[in-house]
Amino acid sequence: MPAPLPANSIVDTHTHTFYSDGVGTFEQNACAAVAAGCKVIVSTDHLTLPHVMNPEGDLQVTEGDLPRHRADFEAARDAHSEIEYLYGFECDWYPGCEDNIRRWSAGAQVRLGSVHWIGTQEDGAWIDDPSDQHIWEQLGSDEVWRRYQQAWLRACQCDLFDIMAHPDLAQRFSEAGYAPTIDLAPLWDEMVACAHDCGKRVELSTAAWRKGLHDYYPAEGLLERFFRAGVPIAVGSDGHYPADICDGIAKAYAHACRIGYRTVEVPRADGSWEQMPIG
User: What does the DSSP 8-state code read for residue 239?
Assistant: First the structure.
């Protein structure tokens, strides 16, 4: 078993490379992590998707690239013994995804569960695509939120995921004309109850700041609810560029402490999870 991490060690549980929708290589991300003083970094490229959801293959590690993806990760991991570099995926939940996830993510040490797509595989849409917001225009912000929340509850109930990533991603365009008009508290409360009952960790993500939202995923009110319910958190940057790796992690710890958290959960290379003190 690895030695416990010192309190407030920099840990980034959510990063991407050019193999999915990121820019950097595994090596570049590792170097960025080392420069940031990171102790544990998890690579979580978007897992392979059904063709109908992403025909261009630009959002995912395509099935044919999975062996090379793993080999390139292992080469970067082996070159950087000064950090723990873990292999994982961000796995989109969609109806009928479970067998696909098991097959395509074989060997992953960490699986993030996320919801970006609402609807069926054949008749759905991405909710966070800045180049195509037709789903927001078609349904309206309130209905997108309702459908997102229902998909999130089903994803949370899936036993394949170690962490639920950016749990309120539906706030993505709330400062760009698509803010909800309904009271989100009832939806949040159901999400919190589901995470608690399913024993899930949720992610505190610094990415929302880089999207201009002036808050985290989850928003402060939702994070407070997770804390009161005893739902543990892990922290990630969702970095898609090497410069974003570990971005804002120390500030996120301080934010979590203000809410009341005193530990964050950290995956280790031996498959264990550690409660690391913060604050």
Answer: B
Say what the pTM is: 0.97
Cα–Cα distance, 190 to 166 (Å, whole number): 16
- DSSP readout, 178-221? ----S--HHHHHHHHHHHHHHT-EEEEESHHHHTT-SSPBSPHH
The answer to whether the beta carbons of residues 208 and 165 sit under 8 Å apart is no
Going along the chain from its start, the domains and CATH numbers come out as 10-277 (3.20.20.140)
Angle CA 143–147–149, to nearest 5: 115
pLDDT of 130-163, one tens digit each?
999 999 999 999 999 999 999 999 999 999 999 9
The angle formed by the CA atoms of residues 275, 276 and 279, to the nearest 5 degrees, is 130
Which ranges of the chain have pLDDT less than 70?
A: none
